[in-house]
Amino acid sequence: MEVEHYPLGKRFRGYLPVVIDIETAGFNAKKNPLLEIAAIIVEPDAEGLLQITEKHSCNIIPFENSELDEAALKFNGIDPYHPFRMAIDEAEALKKLFAPIKKAVKRNDCTRAILVGHNPAFDIVFLNAAIARSKIKRSPFHPFSTFDTATLGGLIYGQTVLAKVAQAAGIKWDNEKAHSALYDAEKTAELFCIMVNRWKKLEALEKMA
183-196, pLDDT tens digit by residue? Predict the structure, then answer.
């Protein structure tokens, strides 16, 4: 079923929120590779409430001469060279994900995308490093500004861990599926929509008072 689109325009100062989650083989963006990346596009419905409209993800082949941290691989459970991962090169993955994001930015009358993540400082550093390695001249994302659902979760629900914030917001959480880029991105996107929409509803009530 095709989702109707209502341009977001200037709701976030001309930026389109796009939820990104990245799984890596370590914590050093220059040495450790991206292994998975997921992007969830959120757009408003007829009432101006945010909803998930698109989901994109890729498994990525470690870049040449990259270093794999065994502790990181044990944590996320990823085998980088498993034949059924259907992984693609880093540059190809970014181009594949950026194409629909650029289209979404345009149809929402926005100027750029802004990365939404749970503790997004990690994701934006790895994303920017991958963009530089891939020699992509213009990213659809703002290079350093982000929206952080951990901060928003702490403000609204008194929780900062993704699983706990999600559960506090009434979102179902499956620990067996966690630490997959697509699953974590989906849950982060659901959470972001709930929190932004809650604020919009509060604004509407204040205007009626």
Answer: 999 999 999 999 99
Q: How far apart are CA 28 and CA 40, in angstroms?
A: 24
Q: Please enumerate in sequence order all residues whose Cβ is within 8 A of that of 109, keeping only pairs 6 or more positions apart, or say none.
A: 7, 8, 9, 10
Output the six-digit token pair for 194: 């709930």
CB-facing half-sphere around the CA of 54: CA atoms within 13 A: 20
- Position of tokens 């403000």? 155
Q: Which residues of 3-34 are buried (b: 16+ CB within 10 A; e: fewer)?
A: eeebebeebeeebbbbbbbbbbbbeebeebbb
Instruction: Tell the burial category of 82 from Cβ atoms under 10 Å away from its Cβ (0-12, 13-18, 19+).
Output: exposed
Query: Can you read off the two tokens belonging to residue 122?
Result: 């990690």
Residues belonging to the active site: 179
Q: Are 173 and 167 in contact (CB under 8 A)?
A: yes
Is residue 112 within 8 A of residue 101, CB to CB? The reply is no
pTM of the prediction? 0.92
Q: DSSP characters for 8-76?
A: -TTTTTTEEEEEEEEEESSS-TTTSPEEEEEEEEEEE-TTS-EEEEEEEEEEBPPPTT----HHHHHHH
Q: Report the DSSP beta bridge partners of residue 41.
A: 18, 54
- Note the pLDDT tens digit of each residue in 117-152: 999 999 999 999 999 999 999 999 999 999 999 999
